[in-house]
Amino acid sequence: MSPTAQPLARYSAWTRRGDFIFLSGVIAVDPGAGRVIRGYDDLPEGVADRIGRSGEFSVDAKDGPIIAQSWYVLDRIRATVEEAGGSMGDVFKLVQYFRNLDHFPRYNTVRRMFFPDQAPVSTVVEVSAMMPAPEILIEVEATAWLGAA
């Protein structure tokens, strides 16, 4: 599993302009394995239980895809910002695209794990589809400022 955000086409996953880091939209696709993160079983060992796997099939089948994708996307953002020399505390803006806005509460629970003190300024949008597959439920863009370092 790639630790940082990786583009799936001909664009930059992120760029630095002065003290700002701009991330392209990050989706729950592991490009190294060529697969969409579809649920808890696609996450690294130990993560699923930490982020909410209940062990109840009906609950995990319903909530698992959005919770797993939320964790994966935010963890890729974390790794990418760290690669650029920052931390999640430097992220001040998120744009979050959802296939279904009903997923926002479960996403928000995961987001609190990455931003325990204060969530960044946010925009939330519902869209009809996302590339490259219909299983993609969320995409998140991030902007960070490293000037305080």
3D structure, described in words:
The structure is a single chain. α2 crosses α3. The mean pLDDT is 92. With 149 residues, this protein is α+β, with helices and mostly antiparallel strands. The protein has three helices and seven strands; from the N terminus they run ββββααβαββ. It has a single domain, classed as RutC-like (60s Ribosomal Protein L30, Chain: A). The protein is globular and about 45 Å long. A hairpin with a 2-residue loop joins β1 and β2. A five-stranded mixed sheet has the order 1-2-7-5-6, with helices on one face. Strands 3-4 form a two-stranded antiparallel sheet. Helices cover 29% and strands 26% of the residues.
State the low-pLDDT regions, or none.
none
Largest pleated sheet? 5 strands, mixed
Q: Which range does the strand content fall in?
A: 25-35%
CATH superfamily: RutC-like
Q: What is the helix fraction of residues, given as a range?
A: 25-40%
**Quaternary structure classification:** single chain
Mean pLDDT: 92
Q: How does the overall form come out from the CA principal axes?
A: globular
Strand order of the largest sheet: 1-2-7-5-6
Strand-and-helix sequence, N→C? EEEEHHEHEE
Classify the fold: give the CATH topology.
Answer: 60s Ribosomal Protein L30, Chain: A
Distance between the termini: 29 Å
